[in-house]
Amino acid sequence: MALTVLGAVLLTSPSASAGTDAKAIGSWHRVASMLHARSAHGVVTLAGGIYAVAGSGPAGPVHEVERYDGKNWAVETNLPGEGLNAPAAVTLGGLIYVVGGFEGLTNVPTAEVQVYDPATGQWRKAAPLPAPRGGHAAVVLDGKIHVLGGGNSRSTIGDHSVYDPGTDSWTEAAPLPRAEGSPAAVVFRGRIYAIGGRSGNSDFGAVDVYNPATNTWGKGPRISPRGTTGAVVYRSAVYLFGGESQARGKTLNDVLRLDPKTNVWRRINRMPSARNYARAVVFKDAVYVVGGSKLPGASHTSAGSKLVERYFVRR
Questions:
Q1: 95 is a domain residue
Q2: pLDDT tens, 168-191?
Q3: In a 3-state reduction of DSSP, which class is residue 270?
Q4: Do 52 and 46 contact (CB within 8 A), yes or no?
Q5: Is 295 within the bounds of a domain?
Q6: Using CB atoms within 10 A of its CB, is residue 40 exposed (0-12), middle (13-18) or buried (19+)?
Q7: How confident is the model at residue 4 (pLDDT cuts 50, 70, 90)?
Q8: Which of 115, 166, 239, 279 is most buried, by the most CB atoms less than 10 A from its CB?
Q9: How confident is the model over 39-64, as pLDDT tens digits?
Q10: In the chain, how many domains are there?
């Protein structure tokens, strides 16, 4: 349920009581655009830069890997192969891991894991996923990569696969409570938060919290249902950016914050440009939302955009 109070929407949940926000928190600024429009892509920060990897563009899959140094974007390398949409990308040990995804602009998933070393400019392959998947989320916890949800060539899945770079091998952990594609995920206070997602025409508002000590999932405070949302941990709290509501046929511009003291989600601002596949990363004490699609319903074949916007909250 949503209540409007002084212009702010309070997102209520059975597990948390709502508070109030009187005005927008934080400011937005447009920064240099990417060289290539993209959606259903991966974005990471490493070695003093933001990297945009893979995704779909107006002419097909985007092969160029671009790096932003705080002022401009430049092509650093090309992704090997025929291109990917909806992979997951993370950094670990100074390397960029591009995990799974759908081949080209298709819905045919791959199990490949490609690893890029910015220090040498070289690509190599790591052990493949236990099974092909795309449209999943990935995070790093305790030196291992956790891959959550997504879909295979037939349906969405709830698989939770864990990669150990020390042994170059995969194991399975407790699956998500439901099969879901396009969830957002972050690591917050030593636990994994899997947020929203979708399956078919259904969007989810669940927030599931994974405890690695017990290998179990618990319930967090819900959000209004959505998928393809960007998520980061910023200023010691979880932030969500944009996404898509299939039920409303709408690309979203909400900025939501999970208050770590009250365990309540609040809408604290709006993005200047609504976007799904809103890939968000923290860089130089601000959040950057990189690329994504302005149009709802375009799925992973969207041409996307070059747009990059910076969100900053003063301490």
A1: yes
A2: 999 999 999 999 999 999 999 999
A3: strand
A4: no
A5: yes
A6: buried
A7: very low
A8: 279
A9: 999 999 998 999 999 999 999 999 99
A10: 1
Residue 64 sits in a domain whose CATH number is 2.120.10.80
User: Could you read off the pLDDT of 65-83 as tens digits, one per residue?
Assistant: 999 999 999 999 999 999 9
- Classify residue 269: in a domain, yes or no: yes
Structural domain containing residue 258: 35-312
Full-prediction pTM beyond 0.85? Answer: yes
Q: What is the pLDDT of residue 23?
A: 67
As beta bridge partners, residue 249 has none
Amino acid symbol at 2: A
DSSP assignment of 1-33: -EEEETTEEEE-BTTB------S--SEEEE-PP
Instruction: Give the helix, strand, coil percentages of the chain, each rounded to 5.
Output: 0, 50, 50
The closest alpha carbon to 133, from 84, 174, 97, belongs to 84
Structure tokens at 81: 């192969």
**Torsion angle (degrees, nearest 10) of CA 76, 77, 78, 80:** -150
**13 assigned to some structural domain:** no
Place of tokens 């009187």: 22
CA–chain centroid gap for 84, Å, is 16
Q: What is the DSSP string of 193-261?
A: EEE--EETTEE---EEEEETTTTEEEE----SS-BS-EEEEETTEEEEE--EETTTTEE--EEEEEETT
Residues 6 or more apart in contact with residue 298 via CB below 8 angstroms: 39, 276
